[in-house]
Amino acid sequence: FQVKPENRKTIWNTEEVPEGSEFDDTWDSREQPEYQILFKQCVGTEDVFFGMSRKDPSTACCEDMVIKIKLPETKYSDITLDIQDKVLDLRTPKKKLLLHLPYPVDSKNGKARFLSEKETLEVTLRVSREFDFINFA
């Protein structure tokens, strides 16, 4: 057992700071947009009719997370989106959303599309899960 030397100038350990805190700006007065988090799972006839897999309707069996963000009066070119493994950071001239995600995601392989007629941004992210008795494929 080895004890790390303590740096007297730091006021907290890096482990104590939650991921995504570098994006948080308490002085930013932009309002937070309405958003919704949905979960998707791929099922086939073997799941629905035969019950051959252990999948159920819970979020523990879902493969993808879809975040729908309402952005009224916003153009696609005004949107700045940054995805980390546990944080979604969205900025527009009028809105700001810092969202700590309920599950870690594959931040390198997501997709986003802006539905201008609905004024909604849809972000689809693959959930990163450890393999267990439910998620074995």
From TrEMBL:
GO terms for molecular function: dynein intermediate chain binding; protein-folding chaperone binding. InterPro entries: DNAAF6, PIH1D1/2/3_CS-like. GO terms for cellular component: cytoplasm. Residues 32-127 form the PIH1D1/2/3 CS-like domain. It comes from the Eukaryota. It holds the Pfam family PIH1_CS. One of its GO terms (biological process) is axonemal dynein complex assembly. PANTHER family: DYNEIN AXONEMAL ASSEMBLY FACTOR 6, TWISTER. Belongs to the PIH1 family. This is PIHD3 protein.
